[in-house]
Amino acid sequence: MKVDLFDFELPVERIALRPARPRDAARMLIVRESGPFEDRGVRDLPQMLRAGDVLVFNDTRVIPAQLEGRRGDAKIGATLHKRIDLRRWQAFVRNAKRLRPGDVAEFGGGVTAVAEERLADGSFVLFFEGEEPVEVLLERAGRMPLPPYIAGKRDTDEQDRLDYQTMFAAEDGAVAAPTAALHFTPELIAALDAAGIGRETLTLHVGAGTFLPVKADDTADHAMHSEWGRVERDVADRLNAARKAGGRLIAVGTTSLRLLESATGDDGMIGEFSGDTDIFITPGYQFRAVDGLMTNFHLPKSTLVMLVSALMGRERMLSAYRHAIENEYRFYSYGDSSLLLP
Prior knowledge:
Layout: E1 27-32, E2 38-41, H1 45-48, E3 54-58, E4 60-62, E5 66-71, E6 74-83, E7 88-94, E8 104-106, E9 112-118, E10 124-128, H2 134-141, H3 148-151, H4 158-163, E11 171-174, H5 186-194, E12 198-204, E13 227-231, H6 233-244, E14 249-252, H7 254-262, E15 273-277, E16 292-296, H8 303-312, H9 314-326, E17 337-341
Parallel strand pairs: 1-17, 3-12, 3-14, 4-11, 14-16
Antiparallel strand pairs: 1-2, 5-6, 6-7, 7-10, 8-9, 9-10, 12-13, 13-15, 16-17
InterPro entries: QueA (IPR003699), QueA_dom1 (IPR042118), QueA_dom2 (IPR042119), QueA_sf (IPR036100)
Pfam family, one: Queuosine_synth
EC number: 2.4.99.17
């Protein structure tokens, strides 16, 4: 499909630069297959679901993966994308023409990394020197990797270390937050529990590729970056049992959805999963695992707009986005939410 089919005009003032406070005060647009859209709030979620439904969260934790440093007299920036092993990360490098294999980049605080290899997509393999765990080095030298549409408008600050982390964050490794879950609070979880709505967690370490624009003219020519994920056997068993009992599986965020779909066989059964996924969901995809999706509002012509269009239909989603823009919903990572129920 032509990428331009997923384009729309977004006024710059609709881009949220800070989250709602408290988090569950955000708005939420209810989108069903047909009928009018419903303007609700995230706190209405327990009333929008049914007892026996299960929300599926991503428990990845965002690490301070944005680094600024030097190679000799040249300034460079690095955004870590995907862990390779204990000391190596794949990274996208700004001013990459000044970095060659074998060069050492200095990121301050005694943190140095060797550019071991330049990969076919232009990214680098960085080997972090020393004996301290890389996570410790990043806490010392790194910044939270805010999306460029926020970072380009204001500086990252200490508040972002709290704001850009979900209440479920437990497994270090993401360089972007699973932002749909940023809306949840202990109070909202208590209300969901009282309504008989279940919850499960899985892990997908979101990579920096999520911020990359689709440069191809046709979706068939776009290559997705892979990300590492895990679904535990007991989680898969409980999700299958909930669905068999008539409950719906509602993915909280596109990361949870993509991992669930990657872990599900043609028979519709979710299985244990551990490894990389580069699943690219576009209209025409036959969903096997999920019955709904809670997600924020995404960038024009992005892979995530393609994904929600696959779930609800392209025209339906573009209509929903027009409604959201006209009714002053806040967009992107720190913005409002939508609940998609096909």
